[in-house]
Amino acid sequence: MITYDQLLELMLSRRSVRRFDERAVSREDLDRLLEAARWAPSNHNRQPWRFMVLDDRAQIRELAEQVRLGMERKLQALPEVAAVHAAGLVQYGTFFSAAPVLIVAMHKLPIAAAAPLWDGTRNPELVSGEPLSVAMAMQNILLAAHTLGLGACVMTAPLLADDLTTLLQVPPGFAITGLIALGYADGAVSIPRRKSLAHIAEFANL
Ligand SMILES: Cc1cc2nc3c(=O)[nH]c(=O)nc-3n(C[C@H](O)[C@H](O)[C@H](O)COP(=O)(O)O)c2cc1C
């Protein structure tokens, strides 16, 4: 069993990596990451995840190009978005163009039989728990990747492209939770600041 300090060290040193060198990721390492994902907690142990691994660089590049077009279309429709912010957002959603691997994480949609439970609930999936389960599996992948010397970055900005589900041929009954760009980091990555504990947590007495 690893200690708290070892775990914290692992979590503190993980970074979102957005630039990758030319090295390919081995199939063995990809299997290790998916194995880590498999052991995440999930709602009713339903394991509502599905992962699609893309490792054809040309395909990934083409997908990023389609996402760029989709995001630009979307952002053009929002006049209040300043052009400078739009450009940054498109970059945030398409940097994966040069990634050697892209993992598409998908969650099952909540089961239809439970629909009456969702009456009046603003966001049924949050109550049902499928996206959260998949998010936990994605964090397992990020941490496992870090132990293997790989760099990764979770992305949801590409979901702004309306046709992403079609482009990725997402199976019926599933939705995209997010994407993970993966590879070997090219250069160091700076450490984004964190809010202080006092800022984010309180010991409450209701
Ligand atoms: C739900 C979620 C969505 C994210 N989407 C994107 C994204 O679309 N593009 C991107 O470059 N980074 C994305 N990130 C990465 C964050 O920008 C990053 O985690 C944050 O800046 C903190 O940096 P760190 O991961 O290195 O600690 C996302 C992270 C999360 C958790």
Key phrases:
206 residues; alpha+beta; NADH Oxidase; 4-stranded antiparallel sheet; globular; binds flavin mononucleotide
Structure explained in plain terms:
The protein is an alpha+beta fold and 206 residues long. It has one domain (13-200): NADH Oxidase (3-Layer(aba) Sandwich), CATH 3.40.109.10. The protein is 41% helix and 14% strand. It is built from eight helices and four strands, in the order ααβααβααβαβα. Strands 1-2-4-3 form a four-stranded antiparallel β-sheet. 27% of the residues are buried. The model has no long low-confidence stretch (mean pLDDT 94). Bound molecules: flavin mononucleotide. Flavin mononucleotide binds at residues 15-16, 18, 92-93, 95, 153-157, 178, 192.
Summarize the structure.
It contains 8 helices and 4 strands. It is an alpha+beta fold and 206 residues long.
